[in-house]
What we know:
The complex is a heterodimer of chains A (about 325) and B (about 200). In chain A, about 45% of the residues lie in helices and about 15% in strands. Chain A has helices at about 15-20, 25, 40-50, 60-65, 95-100, 105-120, 135-150, 165-170, 185-190, 200-205, 220-235, 240-250, 260-265, 270-275, 290-305, 315-320, 320-330; strands at about 1-5, 30-35, 55-60, 75-85, 90, 130, 155-160, 175-180, 195-200, 210-215. In chain A, strands 2-1-3-10-4 form a five-stranded mixed sheet, with helices on both faces. A five-stranded mixed sheet of chain A has the order 7-6-8-5-9, sandwiched between helices. In chain A, α1 packs across α11 (about 220-235), α5 (about 95-100) packs across α6 and α6 (about 105-120) crosses α7 (about 135-150). Chain A starts with a strand and ends with a helix. Chain B has two domains: about 5-130, 3-Layer(aba) Sandwich (D-Maltodextrin-Binding Protein, domain 2), CATH 3.40.190; about 135-195, Arc Repressor Mutant, subunit A, CATH 1.10.10.10. Chain B has helices at about 15-25, 40-50, 65, 90-100, 110-160, 160-175, 180-195, and strands spanning about 5-10, 30-35, 55, 80, 100-105. The interface of A and B includes residues 40, 71, 157, 164 and 172 of A.
Amino acid sequence: MRLQLGYVPLCDAAPLIAAHELGFARxxxxxxxxxxxxxxxxxxxxxxxxHLDGAHMLAPLALASRLALSGPPSDLVVxxxxxxxxxxxxxxxxxxxxxxxxxxxxTDVARAFARAAEERARAGRPLTLGTVHPFSCHSYQxxxxxxxxxxxxxTFRTVVVPPQYSVETLARGLVDGFCAGAPWNDVAxxxxxxxxxxxxxxxxxxxxxxxxxxxxxxxxxxLPLVRAVARAGRWCADPENRSELIHRIAxxxxxxxxxxxxxxxxxxxxxAAAEAGLLLRFGASVEEPRLRDAEWLLAQxxxxxxxxxxxxxxxxxxxxxxxxxxxxxxxx
Amino acid sequence: MTETNLxxxxxxxxxxxxxxxxxxxxxxxxxRVVVIPDTADLLERVTALRPDVxxxxxxxxxxxxxxxxxxxxxxxxxxxxxFVDRSDTTMMQAAVDAGISAYVVDGLxxxxxxxxxxxxxxxxxxxxxxxxxxxxxxGELADRKLIERAKGILMNLKGLSEEEAYKQLRRKAxxxxxxxxxxxxxxxxxxxxxx
Lengths: 332, 195
């Protein structure tokens, strides 16, 4: 069976790339055609309209697509979670200097950010921060960052900045900071334009980040695909495979980035970071698409006024399908 | 169609394709057509222009920027929505196949946006066809050059006339059920390696 899968070139697309590159798909009798999509909106539309059979997707966008909050009508389901964490908020060097936080602890940083944001709003020049899509954990993490410092999120402007533009918009002062996934925070730091203020995981530990979204039309093809991508995710999670993983995803055709840069994303002590719920993580401990994570995302949408309070109660089970995951995982 | 009071913004990573659509919309009587470059300051430019319709190519990474101008975020004064006519999936398929997505201001009637989409679909499909023909023509030209070089190598190496050299190439291609250009490429590559 031949499947068309889409992804956005980010570190957390690794399980899909590995499923193809390392033969996990072939062992399940699947041929994968992977395409890098230029935006989340285009990925969502192509999945909804049947150009793609499945995709690497922002967990909130998968819910929003199926629940008719975003884009064309879709029949997607989520049988597997690909990753948790990996986002960070990067602020411009100028803003960081103005904040002058008491320490690098998230609460001190958030308080210092709140003070600076209020000051700028009073001066009639509110801060502008970038996110990647309205329906993303990035948007929710920006809001949580504000709330952690006791700041009303309406004090600053939130705009969408495609990740490949994030460094340029920061350098040109079009934004004062952004929340993005790996590797874009490290890219901004390496370019000398920003500094990482807080990890997304510090604001919401192990938040559901990317999922595998598949069209229900796939039918019997869903379980073998889930097995192949789950095995690939476990391979990505194994520290022994780290340098091969980095070399594989860095290639032109995938992320097309410097391996040293990607090395930073996967650097550090994975066990300690995992314990703290801070860093990008794949594998067995994150695979199951849990209904309580989907409920948490719907609650974030309510807090962000994307849906009315009380709307879509109990609709998570229509999209998140732990039953499909368990059926597939029984053979892993 | 005379939509003299409409402002349409066109966003496309390909400047040539954007120009073709701009011309088509003007010819159809759209009052104001503005091509906005696909760059980091796109949001500022779109906000300043206040268009009624934004036609954006699916290849543009800036699509997600327009998504946030929707009613979901209430920070914008003129919310736009992605144009999705749920009753007309054929239209949507045709648009996506042609590489088009459209965002419209709240309250704009579906019929008015449809005629704009129709023009965009026609123009973008025509552009894709032209590009395909161009790349085929380029391929043919490259093949012909390759065959010329292979003939020259055979003539030098084996003392053949041009006609005999071509016959040998053609016979080899027929025997191996391959294209003459493929045989020529093999000869040129080998000659490069050994020469």
